Queue: 4 jobs
Job 1
Amino acid sequence: MDRPWKKHIPSGNPLEIEIPEMSLTDLFYESVEKYADKTAVTFNEDRYTYSQLGQLVKRFARLLAAAGIEKEDRVALMLPNCPQYPIGFFAALLNGAIVVQINPMYKSNELIHVLKDSGARHIIVLDDLLPVVEAVWAETDLEKMWIVSKDKDKCEMMKDLLSGAEFDYSVPIDPGEDVAVLQYTGGTTGRSKGAMLTHRNIVANTLQSAATTRINTEKGKERVLGVSPLFHVYGMTSGMNVTFYNGGELIIVSRFEVSEIVDMIQNLKPTIFPGVPTMYIALLHYFQSRPFDLHSLKSCVSGSSPLPLHVLSRFNEVSGTKVAEGYGLSEASPVTHRNPVNGLQKPGSIGIPIQNTDAAIIDSVTGKPSLLVNIPGELVIKGPQVMKGYWGMPEETKKTIQNGWLHTGDIARMDEDGFFYIVGRKKEMIIAGGFNIYPIEIEDILYSHPKVLEAAVFGVPDQYRGETVHAAVVLKPNETITEQELEEYCRTQLAAFKVPKVITVESELPKTAVGKILKRKLQEKHIAYLDKV
């Protein structure tokens, strides 16, 4: 395949890298040995060196083995960001078990679905979340809970680990076949599915992601602000795994609270920040009223959803760095594209395919991968990071992975330089009066209004036009504007058929734990309202 993006990979970053046939735990323990005395994890006042972290992982692995965990058993992690997360994660993998990533914000129905679907036998859970787990216990296959507290002095598990014996055997792993993680899709468009990510998938994506920042990274010296949730595939790879592979210090933050993050940037001087658009929006808004120093950040990456263009431009200006937008999905471990950290970057683009990755746009006529320039179609991807399939869903797997190509469900285009642009989700595309309308185009206009903080655009059924365009916005503090004024603003910059027919001003927008706006919930709310009038 012709790769027009090849010329834009900066010198020093190869187009292809070697992916070793090794387990994720082997990769981790290579760093434990190489960076033994360096700080691996910082959490509040606690510090753990690589040697200490490696010992704690082995001790917990011994406890899991003694409790009956065997190869291919599923161990669920229902934790916010805390040191026990990487400890539990790698300890389960040492036993050959499969980690089931669970959002700690899940309610009973969501939790039951993931636990029953995965068949998890053990769960590592935060003490504050015990009532939720206990309420669903009888409806699952769970046999044992391991209870964690963010307060080390109250955490019996940590006390046991600090005084226990290490795990003294290893379970054979076939990296290409053995599943390391069941990463459940966000469920923003329906029932979540468990993406089976093998050891090789995650090792590959860790090395691929590290290669994209190789020029800008000093091994053993970087401090990474780990605020993106580790239970989310983006935080797991771009936050935890890449940091450990590079021998960096992972500054673990339980949740994003903008004033606390600003203090951390000021005091701890992180050098790398893998964030999501809502975080950059919040930091920029904070900066505009109370400026602070961002210049310790030499590498910033944005993923999960598109970063509004004016936010990208302004953040780059005040930070003195370049936010490299990227793209990924749970089914690809997750990273597939990124703007070169040192090299040509195109605002609004997700960048170019990362090392060892091919990407194409499906031709709407032939249904086959094509490299037609600037013609929207479904983005498809091929690479070593692409999942094995969906857990227990062979038919769904066949629909999603065809001839080795992962069908993302996202509508994209590729320009003449090989840079890709997300136009919208296949399921989010609005068809109104025969016109194809992509929400991101309208959202960029709404975000450009000086009074708008957040925006979401979605389609609502309409008997005459098929669908109509609706929008929901959140205003910046102490700002007011009428819906009519926003509509007029859109009319000055959009074709008439793209202008939202309904715009509502909300106090907040529903989001996933990683900060992605849940348009489905907004859509359901608007449809329910229309049904009543």
Job 2
Amino acid sequence: MLRSIHDSLEPKLITLFRRQGYSRADFVADTIAGLAVAIVALPLAMAIAIASNLPPERGLFTAIVAGFLISAHGGSRYQIGGPTAAFIVTVSLVAMKHGYEGLVLATIMSGIILIIMAFFRAGELIKFIPYPVIVGFTSGIALLIAFSQIRDFFGLSIATVPPDFIDKLYLYLAHIGETNFIAVFLALASIGVIVLAKKHIPRIPGPIIVVTLSALAVWAFNLPIETIESRFGSIPSMLPTPVWPEITFDKLRLLLPDAITIATLAAIESLLSAVVADGMTGTRHKSNAELLGQGIANIASGIFGGLPATGAIARTATNIKAGARTPMAGIMHALWLFIFMLLLAPLIIKVPLAALAAILMVVAWNMSEIKHIREIMHAPRTDRIVLIVTFLLTVLVDLNFAIQAGIALASILFIDQMMRATQIRAVAGEEDDPDSIHNKTIPKEVEVYEIQGPLFFGVAEKLIDTLALFEKPSKVFILRMRYVPLIDAAGLHALEVLHERLHEKNTCLILSGVNHQVQKFIEKSHIDEKIGKENIVDHIDKAILRSNEILRSFSDENDNSVHRN
């Protein structure tokens, strides 16, 4: 057991080194891939921090510290970690409500939650989140990210942007007359450059071209638009000294819901990214080790003045395309970012905010899941409902509530579908089925019904209501259960109630075709003692034989009664 836990939590880096070693060629390939990813991550890390209403260096600290630790301790061969756009809404909201210290504590708490999830092997459970919930949630976040960039995209003079979607809308409409058309032109040009670069020069990341050219344009033409320097001043060229936040019970209790939201987002995003990487490379990630790495990284990110971190799908894909071979590429990406911050800090602050807003607009479009939304809109009605409800709750209410409500709604609709799929009917089976009722001789005083599907709480009432279909009670009621794969407590209770009500009508209940798993639960609940162990059989032929025995006993009792009279 302990060995199994150790294997599931062992970092992918250690597993690869132990099995195949690490050559000089691997190091060169990982170093080059790490440089390519760092060039993409540099503007994104700053843009995500700024979009979260925090200084740009917070994003750099996160990409360096968390990026290093996610690759060193995670369970994916190619995962690149750092701040992601999915956290923007949550981070800005937590920082606004509790201050940056509150955000740090929530980030550390989320790291602890992720580590606990890893030890309880919760990595496999993420796959049970319904696909429409993930798509609705992701597309809702994409809209919120794009909406959060309106201020810088249009160059609006707004000091603080509220977290609520509707409040943002009213505020933007009130200030739309202040639009800075130079900022709009620069932002649109930046989007155009990113799109064209991806099409014509895919080896050169569009975002790095955008921040370089836009910074040169602002410097050369003295453009009247906001830059990182004009809003935030200078940025440090070194990592800060690690500091633990002040911890009190009241703070822990207050921040727990936010920490759960961050941990949930980190788990979903990182494992989705790992799955995408597996699909691109044919590898397999270790989900619980990935959660452990994410937990360690988030604790360290908080201590080093960073933001929540998770696996970044776009950066991970870039890592793979750049020729990465092991998690060392992610470690090298973090080291390259540290070198950039050390040497280029005076130049980084010249980047205009409109260009960073344009980069995040493109990120939001890529996150929007338009293709998958179209697919789901042609899926069954229940999937469409789950998608739309999750999307609207994400945008208009709260991310954590949206996930919870989406999963709950999907579960309820699934149960409804299972109820409809589970049939309880009198004559079942095709004539070519040797065990079909069509091919059996059923005595006149015997009713035969069959359940097709699991007997669970959603179907229990339907089983009991079956008795209402009888015009007059029969002597024997055979309930065929050959197609019942599982049963729950409500199903067991329904069998007990069915037996009692039939007994009141002097009708004997026989269970036929009961599989081993269902039989085990019937015995554990002692229902077999009430129904009679002889009345629970594994085949319809035995059930018919037993029903003939019961009918004969009824006949003998009636004869004896006549003789006595």
Job 3
Amino acid sequence: MIKRPIYILLTILLAASATAQAQVKQPAKKPAQKSTQSKPAAKKLGDAAAKAKQDTSKKGGQTTPANSAQNGGSLSEEIVVTTVYKPVLADAVKIRRNPNLDDTQPYKAPLSYTTLDKRLEQNSDIRQLEAMKMPAERDSLPANNFVRAGFGSLKTTFGEAYFNNGQDEALQVGAFLKHFGQQGNLPKQNESRSEVGVFGKSIGEANTITGRVNYLRRNNYYYGYNTLALTNPAAEPRKQHYNTLSAEGELARNYQDTDRVLTYALKVNGYLFNNAFKAKENNVVLSGYLNQTINQFYAGLGASLDLASQKDSLYSLNNSFLRLNPYLKFQGDNYKIDAGVNIAQEFGFSSRFFIFPAVKLEFQVIPDFVRLFAEAKGDVNRTSLRNLSEANPFLDQNIGIQNSVDKLDITVGLKGRIIPGLGFKAAIFRNTVSDLPLFVSNVQPALTGNQPIPGTLHRFNVVYDDGRARISGFNGELDYKASDDVNIFGRVEFRDYKLASQAQPWNLPKFKLTAGTAIHINDKVDINGSLLFRGTTKDLLTNEQVVTLKSFADLSGGVNYKATKQISVFVQVNNILNTTYQTYLNYPNYGFNIFGGAGFTF
């Protein structure tokens, strides 16, 4: 019964509350006004986001002092909706680029062209390169003249001098002197060589004239003795000397870089030769050639008249030749052919007529690297007293004279370069030679007072291999220039002899190696070196005994130091290995020796 009045009271309170809420006047909704102004430019993204943010912290259940009394302290909150919710979005971020209204186009002047009336060349042939002009030298002294001298062990004396008129492109005149002498440990093991000469060269507009005059004197003793038969060491070796006065003159047409040109040259040279006994030899050679060039085709004729007389105590001979050499030459990009003949007429103490081939061929196998070459030739060779004495200074008197003939010399090989700076040449050959000259020993008695000593004095004679000898072999050359400062070179020779009448190629080696180097350390120091290796040889004594000479190696080297621009010093060492060897039987060579000196440039 008590609950019912309570329900009636709550109903009355709710009705009164609803009546009061209805009497609250709601604010009128204003219509949205359109803006007559344009929207401002878009602001930054952060500003737009801040504008769109609404603070709802006071709407979520907290009772502020302003409405706490209105709510009567209850937990309920009256929310008045005044308008429809409209979300606010930030304007899009834009990158505005305004057009550049300035006129920046450059001014272009009107152009005019003139055509060239020139034909296009299709010629791809390799042309001759023009020589690069030498740059002018600065802060350098003219080196027209040079003198140096020295001395050393084995009583070595050395001297040389060169003189020149200077830097004249049209005229060159000069002179030189040379001397070298040594004395070994054996009695009269003396040797000396002295030479003096003058030369000149005049270059004209069309022709060039050259000339020279030389005088050479060589001295030596016959110090070679058979030590097994020597019974009296007081025997005095005989002295020998060789004198050669030579001269040469030439007139030649200057080179012209044209397709059609006639070139020519005329040359005369000769010498007077004699020794300490009665041997004499005189020689005059007149030679010349004519050559007509038409593009890559050459036609020409070479000719020479070789007049010589040879005398000794037992004979006086006229030994002369007449030679003609007509030829044709063809040259292309990858080949070069020389086709001709060598016609030789021998007259004097012997009269013979010969026609030999004179053919050369070159073909480019690998462009710029390897070329194949072949050659077939022949000629008559004078047995010259001067040439024999230069090869062997211990010759006897009354050497027999008999000219040798190269019947046919055939050579085939390759030449070129393997890598930049490394050049090579390799060839195999086969020569057919009649009357090949050979040195053999001629042991004679030495004299002590008026009494001879049998079988002691050693000299050399010349014998000939009567008939046709065949000489086959291989020649190889290497030249390695690593840079302008380093150069290494070498040559090797292998020979096999098939003789007609002689048992052995007397005093001719079957193997020979020569090598050398030149090294430029810096502007002050230069080094040079050389090596000679010769294989075994055989000699024939008067009693038909065969003697074998051992192989040997000779190593030499030197250093040159330029102290100033005008003064230099040098040191030369020969036979560094101190090898005891004999080039010819019973004539031992010099052992280790060293000499040095100074040079002066002015």
Job 4
Amino acid sequence: MPVPGKSTRWAAVAASVLLAAAALPVARADSASAADASRPGAARTPARYLNQHLDWQPCASGGLECAAMTVPRDWHHPDQGPSLTVEVSRHRATDPAKRRGVLMMAAGGPGASGLKRPAGLAAYAPGLAATYDIVGFDQRGVGSSTKVTCSDQSAVDAYFSGDKRDRSADAIQKTFAQARAFVRDCQRHSKGLLPYITTEQAVHDMDLYRSLLGADTLSYYGPSYATVLGASYATEFPHRVARMVLDSNVDFTGTWQSFMEAQPFSFQRRFEADFLPWLAKNDGVYHQGRTAAEAKETFEHLRLRLHEHPLVLDGTTITPDQLDAATSNAIYQADPGFEKLATALTVLEHPDTAPPAAKQALATALAHPMDSGFVADFFSVVCNDTPWNRSTGYWTAQSGRATRDYPLVGARSLAYSAVCAAWPRSTAPHIHITGRDLPPILMLNSTHDPATYYEGALRDHRALPGSRLVTVDGGGDHGQFQNHNACVDNLVEGYLVDGTVPPTDTTCTANPLPVPSTAGTNPH
């Protein structure tokens, strides 16, 4: 491959290398209906939870109101064990005369914070902000709520670094040993909380929040893992759902194991079908290869060099696993992810000639492949919600196939499955999601979404009779609403504001792929 020039190329790198109030009336004790309390297996909620007052105060940032909501540790035995705190937020409707109720948001992951998200939605969609009180929360186990704690950041960094394509017996045994150590840390540090960090418990928190807001029903928007929360809430409390948008759908028709076993394919598809051709098309800027095959070969050569000689960049040791993690994260969103990934690749290939600011920015971005707080909640939910195969032999063979066929994410799949294989056996109830007694639900998914693959969205769509699926064709971004796609935005806002339901499933064209900021210039 030709060696890139130093001037114009590094200008692009330096610019884009970073990866990565009065309260509502207090609800009465009977505001959670008798139907809710009498569902099979449900325990009556003590009055101290139903009658609590949400003391709204300005949030630390974002122009929202925040409050602390107290919830039972275990909704099935609400008088047992210490209570938990769920931090909640609110953006009041800007036009009270048009207000039609509450629009609840939730975050993905599981493990991401949802507390500040109402501010972003209100700024993006003023029509929704006028019509709804937009409310959010940090799910139990996350952020400003009662958090679950597992290993410290250094242990998490060590677990998600190295080269998981190493299929030697010693390397595989090390992964299983690290996974068991992570689980022991979770058990030791969580103080008995682990069994109660589940989707099923969280949907009861959501319904208590609805009740304390004084709302008989709520509308809902949720992307990624929040589609599981939303669909689960709709199954548990169908008569509480007014309108619901599920964006970039996790395949909730199976188990977390079946969903995650299929993910390496969809990440590889996004990488090879979308990113590599884009990178080749912009070879004049990034010099990674004139065809997708050449660009992939350049990537593999870089990865091999990192395997043989990990790169110390501004104090951060960069290994192949970190390159894979940065790549899979970047391809969630073509804009700005593709350009940031391409410019990062040039830093890693030519660190000696990279500007100090570019190296420092990339080193900071790659220092922690996974956040310790995020993975603590992530594993708590996915390992608790549904059963996992616990055989090390099964996972050794399965991860070997994934590494061979879909290496970008498949090589790291054992790091995830090994944790759930070692997790304490869960007794959490499993919600079998149905569409019974629900209004039409609006679903969104792109055809090449790397994380929530389109094939799973089709199964979800069939599982929710009466739902409408908006297919975003020709792209693979993760998260369709609030992605500056006018077709999608108009459908979602028309549905949430006016109740306009597409008469049939429909299609929107994906956003065009980004044009590099240095396109058309001579890098030499």
